[in-house]
Design brief:
There is one protein chain. The protein is mostly helical. 76% of the residues lie in helices and 0% in strands.
């Protein structure tokens, strides 16, 4: 049993997988932070545009005639 434990401790075959998991988690976390920043920065202009569009009256709009 002792040789098995020594060989198991020396084996580094799964180390690359752990690295990729950590890198992927970091990228996903960064994407969430960027998405939250973009969402909060665009909330006010989108709301203002929606209010303007909802308040527009199509019957009084001036259209160019030929």
């Amino acid at each position: 049993m002792k040789p098995f434990i020594k060989n198991f401790r020396k084996d580094e075959a799964g180390a690359v997988t752990v690295d990729w998991v950590v890198l992927t988690a970091g990228i996903v976390g960064l994407a969430v932070v960027v998405f939250a920043a973009i969402e909060s920065a665009t909330a006010t202009p989108v709301t203002a545009a929606a209010v303007t569009i909802n308040g527009a009256d199509a019957s009084t709009a001036a259209f160019a005639t030929e």
